[in-house]
Amino acid sequence: MPAQDETLKIDKNSNVLMVAGSETDANIYYASRFLAPDPFIYLQTRGTSFLLMSDLEVDRARAQSTVDQVLPYTKYEARAKANGVSAPRLTDVLHVFMREKEVPEWIVPANFPLRYGDALRKLGHKLRTKDEPFFEQRALKNEQEVAAIRATQVAVEAALDSTLDLLRQADIKDGLLILNGEILTSESVRRHLNLTLMEKGCLAQHTIVSCGMDACDPHNEGSGPLRAHQSIIFDIFPRSNETRYHADMTRTVLKGTAPDALKRLYDTVLEGQLLGIAQVKSGVNGREIHESIMRCFQKKGYETGVVNGRMQGFFHGTGHGIGLDIHEPPRISKTDHILQTGEVVTLEPGLYYPEIGAVRIEDMVLVEDGTCRNLTRYPKFFELD
Question: For residues 232 and 239, what is the distance between their CA atoms, to the nearest angstrom?
């Protein structure tokens, strides 16, 4: 396919083609608001949007999607056969529709299936690829989308509260957390957390319940017994089954007594996170927020770099956009990005030192003019009562 065009923008009059399943592709779901596991066809041209749907899904799509017209795939399949194609493939069906619309060029996402792209080009169609963000407006959430994210976050906060009660009720024996005679493990606590989220209509995957050395690897989901007097990172980022919108929250807690060095680490991360939140507003460069947190940590003596063959310190971005995908533009990191009103971003700095422990704290905020609105209400505390 042609090289990416960095200046390419999509608006309501753009000619857009997508073929994907909306359960796994947020762009086609965003455009159609129709949920289906199998790939289907979305097209947009001259301000009108279309779905080409199988007989199985055409009526449901008409009832549930937000596109302007839902057309039967078999109608265009029959036209392809009438044109001499004995066994029409998807691209033959698309060819009929696209030729009828007399559109000189279509925009497709960068993950558009290569075999379809090659076949359509051979049939004479011009395609231009566009990288993420495919729909720039996805980053700017309306109040309905903000409410959906907040609703998912309410479930996250309730699930974590229920889960931390298990840790509060646990006894400490031989350095381990024991509840009702059983050792609490990352696996058992994660199971409780995920099941609670499921009961609240959310699907959680890869939830992090990571203790001690495991937590020094930021994406380690955690395994084995939870230990007293060590930090435990909970990073929870489920999707609502109803709205498809995610939430994302991280809290670091400790059962027992925190060593002084670990308590100081927690206080420093909290200071850096609050510093970052205080700077979020429309017009601010996310890179400057990230760099200010890095400087805060450095002034406290926490350097970042490779020690004994592994990264230590603050070695990931400060935050990311969130919505229909758990990670979506923009980023608050080393890369320049001017924040815009309506973006929902996370602020999640962390510090990781195997000889001390690990701490990460994360909230979601809505960028507004002159300020931000924190969508995370759960309190921040370290040592459990």
Answer: 23
